[in-house]
Amino acid sequence: MTYVVTESCIKCKYTDCEDVCPVDCFKEGPNFLVIDPAECIDCGVCVPECPVDAIFADTDVDVSQHPYIALNAELSMIWPTILKKKPQLETADEFKDVKNKRDLLEK
Ligand code: SF4
Ligand code: F3S
After folding, report:
1. What pLDDT does 84 receive?
2. Whole-model pTM?
């Protein structure tokens, strides 16, 4: 089991999740974070911290978001670890309620 960042994070990247992770297993891309499944200890403390409810246990991910399970694993091998919370993206307010943002994900 692992936890997974899903679509709501795209173009928001609030990073409150990283701030509470005891093992620093979030990896950072230009406009999205992912969780490294090899490092996540399944504690779940990041889940309520995300203002846009982007984080789920892999067993609870909605079927529409299933591609994000593989995407977190794939991108976590490429992107660097984020160690400190930073301000959300300037686009966060505009995109926090937007659905179907997958095409906007920058790698
Ligand atoms: Fe980090 Fe725990 Fe969230 Fe996994 S579930 S990403 S270990 S805070
Ligand atoms: Fe993204 Fe939510 Fe973390 S928007 S950066 S998963 S707090």
Report:
1. 93
2. 0.98
